[in-house]
Give the backbone structure.
Amino acid sequence: MECNKIFKVKFEIQKFFKGEVEDDEETLLKYSRDASLLEVRPKVVVFPKDKEDVKNLVKWVGENSARQDLAGLSITARCAGTDMSGGAIGESIIMDFTRYMNKLVGGPLPISQLSGRSTKLEKFGNYPLVPSYITVEPGMPYRDFEKITLEKGLILPCYTASKSINAVGGMYGNNSAGERTLKYGKTEDYILSAKVVFSDGNEYVIESLSRSNFDRKVGQGDFEGNIYKNIFNLIKENEDEIKNAKPKVSKNSAGYFIWNVINSLPMKNFPGFTLPGVPGGTYAVSNSSSASYFTDKNFPGFNFFDLNKLLVGSQGTLGIATEITFKVVPNNKYSKLVVIFMNDLNPLGRLVKEILELNPETLESYDDKTMRLAARFFFNFLRNKGLIGMIKFAWSFLPEMFVMLTNGFPKLIILAEFAGADEGEVNAKCLKLKEKIKDFKLKVRITKSQTESNKYWDIRRESFALLRKHIKGKHTAPFIDDIIVRPEFLPKFLPELNLILKKYDLTFTIAGHAGNGNFHIIPLMDFSHQDTAKIIMELSEQVYDLVARYHGSITAEHNDGIIRTPYLNKMYSEKILFIFKEIKRIFDPQNIFNPGKKVASISGAGTKEYLVSHIGREHSATHRV
C-alpha cells in the first residue's frame, strides 16, 4: 500500500516536472541524512531544473496535500545537506537545488549601480573596492561563490567553517554565521533581496520596503498582501511581549526572528519619540497611533518593513527561495593573529571585553582538550603539505612546545585576528593589544607569518574531525553544538557546563566564538548503545536549562531543525510559541513547507518523541564548527 502511494507521488510529479524525480534506494538513503545525528526517510527526491519547476511543485502539493492516497505531502528544500539540526531532512518530498539551480544570475556589481550613483574609490584590478551585490541561485556551493567574489576583491564575511562544502541557499535558510560574524554580522545583514515561492505557488520579490511601498503591498488584498498585513498586525499587537522575549545575546537562530521585521526609527527629535516640552513633538504623540508619521516624505529612503528578516533563518518553513541577492564587501588585504594562552578562566570575561575594544576581525577560542588532540594527532596535520610545508609546519610549533613544557596545557587558547588594508596598521593593532592586556600576565604570541596563523586555524577547525576518524565505533553527535551566552558570563558558565558534561563518559571538545560567547560542543558517541538516546535527551535538558539561567540561546547559528524545536520552550513563553505558530499559519496554512521545524506538527514532528525515534544508528558526517 505504501509503495503504491510513493509510486503515485512520483508518477504524478513527473507529469509536469522537468527535472528528475528519484526514489531508488541509494538516493533515499543518502537524503535520509544531513549533517545531524538524525535519520528521516523521504518518499521521493526531486531536482528542479528552474524556478518554474519549484512553482509548479508547490502548487501541486498545495492542491493535493489533503489527499489520503498521496501519503501526506510536504516539501523540504535542501542544498548541500550540511545542516547539523536535521533541518534538511523530511518524510515526504526533498527538493535538492544543487544539481541544476546553482548558477550565477548577476554581478558582482557596485551597489551604487542599483541607484544610479557612482563612487570613485580604490580598485582591485579594474574593479572598484566598494560594497557590491551578487545574485545567485540557492544551490551554488559557497566555494564557487567565493571564487567569483574574490576575483573582484570582495567577500561575504558571514561565511561558515564549512564553507568548502556548504551552499548559499543553506546560509539563507539557517541565517548562517562564522568566525567573522563578530565584526560583520550574520547572513541576514547581507541579504538585499530574494525571490521566494510562497505556499500559493507564486514567486515574489522580497526586499526592504518604505512605508508607502508597504502600504501598497498590503493594499493588494491578495495572498502576498495578506501575509504582509497579518505579520505586521501580529507583531504590533504583541509588541511588548515580543520585545521582552528577545534573547540577550548578539546571535540567535532559535524560533522565528521577529524582532527586526519592522524597523525602528532613529532616536532623534521627531513626534514619535520626543519628550514633553521638546520642540518638534510631544510625549502625547508618542503614545498615540503614529503610524502616519512613517512616511516617505518625513523619512526619505527609510526602510520600514523587511520580510527577509523573518524568512532568513526560517529553514524553508515559510517559503522556498529561488534567487538570492547578497551584499558583498571588500576583503581585507592583510591579517595577523594574536594568540593568548589562558591557564585560569576567571579573567576571561574581562579579557574579552578588553580585546573587543580594539575591534578585532575575529575572536575565536578552543580548549585544552582540542590542543591535546592536536598534539596527539600532530602528524595528521602534516599530510598533503609537502616536504617543505611539513618542515615549516612542524617548526612553527616550537613556541607552543615551550609554553606547554613550562606552563602545561593552557585551559583555553584565544585567537584574536586583526585585519585591514594597511599592513603597518594591522601590526600596530596587534602590538597595542599585547600592551593593553599585559596586566593579565598571560602568555601572548603575535604570529609572524600566514603559515603560522594557519596552524592555529587548522587546530580550531580540524581537530574534532581528526578525533572522529581515529576513534573506532563512535560518531559525532551534534545536539548541544551551538549554545551562546554573553561573554561576561563565561568564567562562571564554562565551569558549570563542564560539571554537567563530566557526569557522562563522553569524549568531546569545546571550541567556538569567544567574542560573542558562542561555543560548539560535539561529543563522540556510540550509537549502537541503548542508552545513547537517553544521554542525548538528558544532556540537552541540563545544558539548555543552564543556558536559560544565563539568559542565552540554545542555538546561535546552527538553527532549530528536529534536534532543538522541542526545546524552544526553554527560551520562550507560551505566548511567543503561539506567535511562532501564527507566523507559520499565515505563510503556510496547509503546513506543506518543511513541517516539524520551528513549530511542531499535528503528526508529531517537532516533539521530543519524534526526535528520539529518528536518532540514526550510524553517522559519518564531517563537522566543521
About this structure: Residues 142 and 163 are 6 Å apart (CA to CA).
